[in-house]
Automatic annotation (TrEMBL):
It comes from Ruegeria sp. PrR005. NCBIfam families: PRK07480.1. Belongs to the class-III pyridoxal-phosphate-dependent aminotransferase family. This is Aspartate aminotransferase family protein. It comes from the Bacteria. It holds the Pfam family Aminotran_3. Keywords: Aminotransferase, Pyridoxal phosphate, Transferase.
């Protein structure tokens, strides 16, 4: 049996990592010099590193470990499924029991008539599926020119070339270019972009950019609008209350498909099973991944409404991945959903933990660096600012202050990430009130240290 050793000295592991492993979203040469932190074990909300440090994971891995680390049930289900049927595909007139059971379960959990599931290995490839799905849908209806998908700047829809084009991350576009017929409108980020408008007015104005885009591009050209109910990787941007009802009105009025990218928001993160329930949206398609298996195995899906599935079914759908509906991934996801449901984890988030977290999160507004505190369920963000009243940005390069704060958190053994100069959290849904208290001791300490450092380095200056 291959042994993956945890017993090498940290420096040796780091040297091997630097020599052979290319990290995602990293400047690898610099990271190699510094050495990556080696995570060796995890249980509940706690990670352990190769030095024996215990770290409170305020990000649930990458927003995915909803049921927490170390649930043996999932390991056992995986082992059993590997023995029984480790792999078979669902391409050529075949199917298998785990994929049937999981599709049925997802149809039951998903709202409305989202009753049909196309599987992928994660969120990026599920969004690639969605691009082909919506274009095929309109082709099958005899409207092949209806192929433009509208998305938003600063959206994250994945890292494949197509899904990153769908997303609105300028840095990703710069490295791989765009694919045709994707159009971006502005995001509903009031703190950074609201100017003198009140939030409600700004929310309406940003939603109406969708209508303006449809009218400009032509109703006969626009296939779909895609959005995260709450933007995650963009910095946990919560739209003003006026935004989503207006988006829904516009999608209904012009008959364009609405895709809710629930890769982060799904499976309890917002305090309901899906973010579209929290925000009152009725999508035709939902993208899911992450919390569907709590990250224990890679799996994602597009969950499709009756009408879209029917139109797609009219002809051959030329699409599929080797691991679509992988039996081991499906079995593990199903066990994860059983735990979420039977242990009433989503209910507890809604009724107990999220309200508690919200109260502590919003209390951070008393900190001199914190200008805005936003939170929906178990995903929150704070905007760091040198001047709360004017919502000023820092004079330093965007992200400098956020990075200082993140480094302090990392040293203090709490994972809180930065996106530019916003700090974000998204802890495992099973975090307890006591663990939340501990997380805030570490967060406050880190914010205080960051504040002192920023002061000392003369960085507490507003941009002109
Ligand atoms: N949609 C959304 C809304 C996501 O958040 C994807 C699609 C892509 O999923 P996969 O499984 O292909 O990664 C995501 C992923 C970050 C970060 O730094 C966020 C994600 C991935 C990696 C990093 O916040 N979200």
């Amino acid at each position: 049996m291959v042994t993956i050793t945890n017993h090498m000295p940290t420096a040796e592991l780091q040297a091997l990592d630097a020599a052979h492993h290319v990290h995602p979203f990293s400047a690898n040469t610099e990271l190699g010099r510094e050495g990556a932190r080696v995570i060796t074990r995890a249980k509940g909300v706690w990670l352990t590193d190769s030095e024996g440090e215990e770290i409170l994971d305020g990000m649930a891995g990458l927003w995915c470990v909803n049921i927490g680390y170390g649930r043996d049930e999932l390991a056992e289900v995986a082992a059993r499924q590997m023995r029984e049927l480790p792999y078979y595909n669902t391409f050529f007139k075949t199917t298998h029991v785990p994929v049937i059971a999981l599709a049925q379960k997802l149809a039951e959990l998903a709202p409305g008539d989202l009753n049909h599931v196309f599987f992928s290995s994660g969120g990026s490839d599920a969004n690639d599926t969605n691009i082909r799905l919506v274009r095929t849908y309109w082709q099958n209806k005899g409207q092949s020119d209806k192929n433009i998908i509208i998305s938003r700047k600063n959206a994250y829809h994945g890292s494949s070339v197509a899904s990153s084009a769908l997303g609105g991350m300028a840095g990703m576009h710069a490295q791989s270019g765009m694919i045709p017929n994707i159009h971006h409108i502005n995001q509903p980020n009031w703190w950074a972009e609201g100017g003198d408008m009140a939030p409600a007015e700004f929310g309406l104005a940003r939603a109406r950019e969708l209508e303006e885009a449809i009218l400009e591009l032509g109703q006969d050209r626009v296939a779909a609008f895609i959005a995260e109910p709450v933007q995650g990787a963009g910095g946990v941007i919560v739209a003003p209350d006026t935004y989503w009802p207006e988006i829904q009105r516009i999608c209904d009025k012009y008959g364009i498909l609405l895709i809710a990218d629930e890769v982060i928001c799904g499976f309890g993160r917002t305090g309901n099973w899906f973010g579209c329930e929290t925000l009152g949206i009725r999508p035709h398609i939902m993208t899911v991944a992450k919390g569907m298996s709590s990250g224990y195995v890679p799996i994602g899906a597009s969950i499709i409404c009756d009408e879209v599935a029917e139109v797609i079914g009219m002809d051959e759908f030329n699409h599929g991945y080797t691991y679509s509906g992988h039996p081991v991934a499906a079995a593990v996801a199903l066990e994860n959903l059983r735990i979420l449901e039977e242990e009433k984890i989503v209910d507890r988030v809604r009724d107990v933990t999220a309200p508690y977290l919200k109260q502590k999160w919003e209390a951070l507004l008393d900190h001199p660096l914190v200008g805005e505190a936003k939170i929906v369920g178990m995903m929150g963000s704070i905007a760091l600012t040198p001047n709360k009243e004017s919502r000023a940005k820092f004079a330093s390069e965007p992200g400098t202050i956020g990075y200082i704060c993140r480094e302090r958190c990392f040293k203090n053994n709490v994972i809180m990430r930065h996106v530019g100069d916003r700090m974000i959290i998204s802890p495992p849904l099973v975090i307890t009130p006591d663990e939340i208290d501990e997380m805030f001791v570490r967060i406050r300490k880190s914010l205080d240290e960051a504040h002192a450092e920023i002061n000392e380095r003369g960085l507490l200056k507003s941009a002109a």
